[in-house]
Amino acid sequence: AQSVTQLDSQVPVFEEAPVELRCNYSSSVSVYLFWYVQYPNQGLQLLLKYLSGSTLVKGINGFEAEFNKSQTSFHLRKPSVHISDTAEYFCAVTGSARQLTFGSGTQLTVLP
Amino acid sequence: GAGVSQSPRYKVAKRGQDVALRCDPISGHVSLFWYQQALGQGPEFLTYFQNEAQLDKSGLPSDRFFAERPEGSVSTLKIQRTQQEDSAVYLCASSPRQGRGMNTEAFFGQGTRLTVV
After folding, report:
1. Best residue in A6, A39, A44, A52 to probe B by mutation, most B CBs within 10 Å?
2. What's the pLDDT tens digit per position in B46-105?
């Protein structure tokens, strides 16, 4: 079985400040890890993914994430956020199952 | 079209009514998934198709839910005798890959928001 925990349901941050959205996963097999962003009334857009190799993954819109196998974490970071980054962010994992298993999401709100 | 298209975007159904939700995947995509996203939650898996074959329907919450993809392209998710707990956004995703790598290139539609009143 695989599962994902997003520890923070809401993260408010001021514009141009750094942000970290936390994600922990559990799986009995090796995993692929993903971060998706969802804007209001929109579908999911892939930000970045970890498949193998370098544990630091860079994605779109200046986001990056680091895979930490020992801590079973895949935290998302951005050094300086913009108002336009306000959205819901979902961490997801796929391992032994075909489908993606998603966390419950983190609402990032960037304040002016 | 260029992406995964879902219709209708919004659907209001009276309790007990049957509904049909449509997904047009990206042309040529082999794999197709349906997910259910309740308010304030992450998407949860419903069912998976590889071409026209429904290989996994373990996530369908009850026998009122039925999905098909008869020609390996367009898919329909049907919900019979809708109930209030069926209110959610239903997302469709397609991928050109199959096997473990399919989710590495998954594209999501904008979803259908179903409200049962």
Report:
1. A44
2. 999 999 999 999 999 999 999 999 999 999 999 999 999 999 999 999 998 887 777 778
Burial class (CB in 10 A: 0-12, 13-18, 19+), A5: middle
Task: Closest CB to B110: pick one of A32, A43, A49.
Answer: A43
Nearby residues of A74 by Cβ (< 8 Å), 6 or more positions away: A23, A24, A25, A33, A35, A50, A65, A66, A67, A68, A91
> Which residue out of B9, B103, B108 would a mutagenesis test of the A interface target, given it has the greatest number of A Cβ atoms within 10 Å?
B103
Per-residue pLDDT of chain A (112 residues; tens, 9 = 90+): 789 999 999 999 999 999 999 999 988 778 899 999 999 888 899 999 998 888 999 999 999 999 999 999 999 999 999 999 999 999 999 877 778 999 999 999 999 9
A61 touches chain B (CB under 8 A): no
